[in-house]
Amino acid sequence: MHNSKLHPLCNIAVCMAFSSLAFIGSLPFKPIMVFICAFIYSSLILPGHVLRSLRILWKSLPFIFSISVLQLLFHREGTPLVRLTILSINAGGLNWAIIMCMRLATVVLCAHTIAQNSFKDFQVAFSALHLPEEISFMLSFGVQLIPNFSKAIKGFMQSLRLRGIEPKSLSWKNRIKIYRILAISSLAGIISNSSKAAIALELRGFRSEGKRSFLHKQKFSPADAFCITGLILFIAYLIVI
Fold this sequence. Notes:
By secondary structure, the protein is mostly helical. It folds into 2 domains: 1-123 and 220-241, no CATH class; 129-216, no CATH class. The protein has helices spanning 8-21, 29-45, 49-74, 91-115, 119-127, 133-162, 172-203, 222-240, and strands at 80-83, 88-90. The protein has a two-stranded antiparallel ribbon. A hairpin with a 4-residue loop joins strand 1 (80-83) and strand 2. Helix 1 (8-21) runs parallel beside helix 8.
């Protein structure tokens, strides 16, 4: 994590808790409350703070909006609010559109917050639970897979623009051809990097026998206790209301 005083295990626990809490309740109030807390938390943890969280939500807006529109149009419960020629918007549809919007936004923010963790962070987190190092490696690799793929695609796109090639100005046939080449090249790069990571892990004694020691260690701090206490109180509040 970047410039965070929280223990990586605490960060993972909070993100997983918010992602799970977003799916409780059948009324918008609880998902909205969870989203607000997740937004505040991600703004404190992510580099760039509030602007970074807003940018993440903005990039995810088309996906979130499309799912919410489907809920709005095809849920038939409740009082009709707007009648169209074929479809109608009901109170139940509006209710579930808001719920799905809040749930997806919460999950997206938490996913990006966890994705900030490096292999070292996952190692520190799971060593605190005395879990095998393989788990931290697999989770770290899986979490970073999509961001690394996206970063590689952006790098290739930037190279094309510097050469005077703008994919948006090409025909659909040529555009699909370019995207296919870029996708294959990006996947090949990820596989190649995986091989290098495997060799590096073998050189540092990955899965070797005997008692292990860790270079990177981090103790739990009062900030972790404060964060977990606040999370427990928030969960209790959601259960009571």
